[in-house]
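Hi support team,

I submitted a single chain yesterday and got back a structure, but I'm not sure I'm reading the token output correctly. Could someone confirm the output below corresponds to the sequence I sent? I've pasted both exactly as they appear in my results page.

Thanks,
R.
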Amino acid sequence: MDVAAMTSKQPNVRAHTVIDPRTMGRPVHLLGGFANQLRDDFADFLRARINRRYKASFQIDAISFVAAPADSQRWLSYGVDDGRIHFAIERPLLLCLLRYRYGSVMPETSAATDSVAPPSAATIDEPETATEERLATMLGQQLIELAVRRIESVQRASVETPAPVTFAEASLQGASDGEWLLRLTLSETRCNVGGDLLLKISAVWMNRLLQALAPNRERSRQKQMTATKPFPARLQLTLQARLLEKEVSLGTLLDLRLGDVLPISVGDADVLIGDSRLFTASVAEHHGKLCLTTLADVD
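Hi R., thanks for writing in. Yes, this is the structure output for that exact sequence:
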């Protein structure tokens, strides 16, 4: 027996997806469409407010929207109504934006490599300046306002007064239940930098967003009630009742004048669907209306 062949066989282990209980019963599958709308909003902001003004080339390379994991990130926190949204940006991106905003000398592009060296480690490791923090605070407020307006636009009820966004504090913020992380990966070619821009959205605003994205409950309930009825109850047919037939000669028909009376006798009526005769029924009078009763199958 070949022992080596036996030991080399790997068991067929099937990978299982771990379900986050925070996503159960909620329309999280619709967050991708919302994230794409927000990406367009942020791209327009970068194009109009930064790239066009400072001749920069910031662009969004990727976007993701996931339940917020635990982290030790330093966040800028903003109060929005009765909730909060936190903001963070990686320092190489912020330093590149700082160069453009304050007219610093930009790095020269090498003709051989057609690229520039990224910011040195010494620059990144230097303590953050007050100017950087002011720029990050202003940028965070502008982007969070865009995110809040986008959430408000998704809500079914029109918002009379837009929610104000105010800076609260800069501090370490752990992940709380119900928070979600929006991650945008940005790059800028002239500074040759890339990094992440992060928004951590509190449970209050995520609940608003998910409620707005959820399908109309009343409409869904009506569809569900209709779908649960058995098929015979959902199939609608039109019945026609033929009450009588009387044969007359052509001469009698031609001699009929206004006011003449044709004697008839009412017997069983024929019940049809289209041209198909399915039942016979007795004709009865009930409260001044003719009714069909005693339906019997046609042999």
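A quick pointer for reading it: The first strand starts at residue 58 and ends at 67. Let us know if anything else looks off.

Best,
Support desk
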